[in-house]
Fold these 2 entries.
Entry 1:
Amino acid sequence: MCGIVAYIGPREAYPVILKGLKRLEYRGYDSAGIALLNGGLKVYKKKGRVSELEDSLLGKDLHANIGIGHTRWATHGEPSDTNAHPQTSASGKLAIIHNGIIENYSQLKQELTKKGYKFNSETDTEVLLNFIEDIQKNNECSLEEAVRIGLKRVVGAYVIVLVDQEHPDTLIAARKGSPLVIGVGKGEHFLASDASPIIEYTKEVVYVNDYELAIIKADELILKNLGNDKLTPYITKLDMELAAIEKGGYDHFMLKEIFEQPNTIYDCLRGRLDVEAGTITMKGIEEYAEQIMNASRIVMVACGTSWHAGLVAEYIFEELCRINVEVEYASEFRYRNPVINKGDVIIAISQSGETADTLVAIENAKSKDAIILGVVNVVGSSIARVSHGGAYTHAGPEIGVASTKAFTAQLAVLTMIALKIARKKDTISEERYRHLLEELHAIPEKVFKLLESIEHIKEIAEKYKNARDFLYLGRGYNFPVALEGALKLKEISYIHAEGYPAAEMKHGPIALVDENLPVVFVATKDAHHHKVVSNIQEIKARKGKVLAVVTEGDETTIGLCDDVFVVPEADEIVAPMLNVIPLQLLAYYIGIAKNYDVDKPRNLAKSVTVE
Ligand code: AGP
């Protein structure tokens, strides 16, 4: 949720940390702060964007070779200078940054209050820091030891990094549930929530695991568990280029990522899909093909846009593999005490690989001997590391908070898995299999063609930008696409929008229809098309404004609509990868027309690492 950055080494810490916070700002942008150690502890923090903190520090002496920085997504205490991180301890000697939630903080706060502690902020983080300082004082032990003792009493999720005025050559960090990456340089170390602040300095990283603690000096990295046993840091080489996390000349990351989709879908298929040979190669799936084929059911677990990808996959797997699929909201699945049997196959879908609800849901299922397969975008992320197998979506870093290219890459991976299993199970004919391989292979080119003519979408966005509500409708494979279109509009334009199965409309939502309600149909040619056309006429009969995603050349449907988004013809199984793109662009251009920050929509964050 929040973004944390820290540095120790010969460089000026401030510019390294500031740049890192800007790279992580998609994780939370309610406030920002930095603490530097240079002949004493200096803490600077400000409500709002990192740039506002930067402006407030102009002209200050910010020289230091060790520091910590934080960009916040508020959980405990509203966005303010006081609740911003770093938080400092009662003695003023310690400072901490924290990503996560300390669930038993009020109990700890009561204990400390009884001892006379006073608190400046409303944060759980300040409570944790004073709890650690109190242990250090009472046990006359090192900060490292106090952290280890303190964390054994903590309930919740955390990445914390601490600096100690009395030990200006050491950073202490620890992790449980939230992500922490350590960049290993020559005589320097970089700490961050993900690799994007580190990539320009080093490609050598260590992914810290749950219940691990790191003691970091400029030229030394020690990893330990909470039991004080030393662990060997496992160094991984990052496979990412700096350009991937730059805007590359686009106004926004969201627009860049929408336009990257011909390449990202291609990268997702490359080395896996071989139309000539009629094969799909996915090592991380092949190992579990038997279990998948013989599974009585497959459970897809995810949140948000990834959940929508799971819903499309449900239709595909049931049609092609004849396997029962359940699509679960991770936040409900983790607490519902679901029936999980040994050998059940759970597919966890996640762009970030760090979404707390999805992570804990699969950890629970894994503890009941289910097989966990991850469909994940961020390499080395927690969900990828917890999963038994799976496949990366290779969409590259997705910075825009609204997920776009990751969604189409998830669909490409899930479609390949389904085709692979269906062929193995012989539940589809060789002819249909070959046809779908070709259809899948043709998608990147069709997306490229689709993105060549989008000017009209700007005009349509301008036309409907002041609508109070939107309704998105689709049938079959296009129903989840309608849900995704509605979610994109909500996230980016703050307009209330609902996605619905088109036939369900008559059971209530049609009461909303009048001349002021734009109704977006995903009405491309498929098995249900004639039914959708009837639904369009029902809306027209009530003066609703009809916008529709339609198949090229479908003049009949085009004639019925007020505005259309034309997409190339494609088999209904792969069409969702095309049909969603005009809806991504509609949301983007309505957000732009309303002058909203489409990369950092209010109240949102890219990776939801708290429940
Ligand atoms: C989508 O645009 C949102 N950013 C959000 O719904 C997201 O899909 C959800 O938080 C799941 O994230 P994940 O794919 O990283 O697990």
Note: The radius of gyration is 25 Å.
Entry 2:
Amino acid sequence: MQDLVQKLQIYKSEIGEYTATDEPSVEAFRIKWLGSKGLVKTVMGAMKDVPVEQKKEAGQLLNDFKLFVEAKFSDLKEAATASSGGAEKARPDLSLPGDTIALGSRHPITLMRNKIISIFQRLGFAVAEGPEIEDDWHNFTALNMPAHHPARDMQDTFYVDAGSNSAVDWLLRTHTSNTQIRVMEKGVLPIRVICPGRVYRNETISARSHCFFHQVEGLYIDENVSFADLKQTLYFFVKEMYGGDVRVRFRPSYFPFTEPSAEMDVSCFICGGKGCNICKKTGWVEILGCGMIHPNVLQNCGIDPEKYTGFAFGMGVERPAMLKYGINDIRLFSENDVRFLRQFTSAT
Ligand code: 2U9
């Protein structure tokens, strides 16, 4: 009996000192003490050697010991569950919303370019794109700007150093008209095409101008195309772009590649024509240039100007985008600052 009391004392102090609460240790504790071949079972088996008169007392002791071990196991298990985050916590909560995946947004220039393109597409215009590095024929000569023309000045144009063996001058296109020339040279008539793209001019960079910007130009060539067709096409564009209430006016202008030429203004869509900073108190905002294609340009591309006539127009993309989105510095478009870019979504 004395032996049993002593043994239980030693076991109790060993159990009392047991503190490991990771799950494998707690399981090892259970197997050692409470398992089918565990020590609780073993000491219980010692009952049979206890003299009859001491059985009651021994039974009490062993029972207390078993309860003691079970209580310790229960404490260890609870601690293990708490330290592993809890069984409930470990199970994923499928009702929680998923992680937000950051979506990219379209660049405001792309949004404005697509808006312009989609209006002309509804009128049957196809979209054509051309090279940004161009030879002087497609950028200047074919467009009725021969060798001496002032627009070719180094001050205005970025020339590309193609080496002294190059037979032609290479440059960064100053307008997307090079693309229309390439379409015309293919000789498939009639032509109804719009040409969006990036162009380059040797301008000092400031809040209002940059050395590269974007244009959408259009071209319509067929038999009997008149200035009235040009006006009707552009009226439709303005109505779709700025709403049915805006008024339109044409002012005579000059471009080497069109004759006659005009610039088109719309009544200021910011102040409604009353006069504000955007329209410089005039009530009008210039939005594009246009005209009937110069016969020399048709001829340069192998199109008979006696049989065919056409109109062309060109507009910048940055300015309408700045007005629509309230952007006051053109440089923001090319700085790739995500704080700026993420403000635009394809819905706007
Ligand atoms: C061909 C023949 C004629 C395209 C045209 C304009 C007038 C024009 C400016 C608008 C703002 C350039 O971006 S901007 O600075 N463009 O005023 N562009 S007519 O005329 C063409 C094009 C191609 C073969």
Note: The longest strand covers residues 212-222.
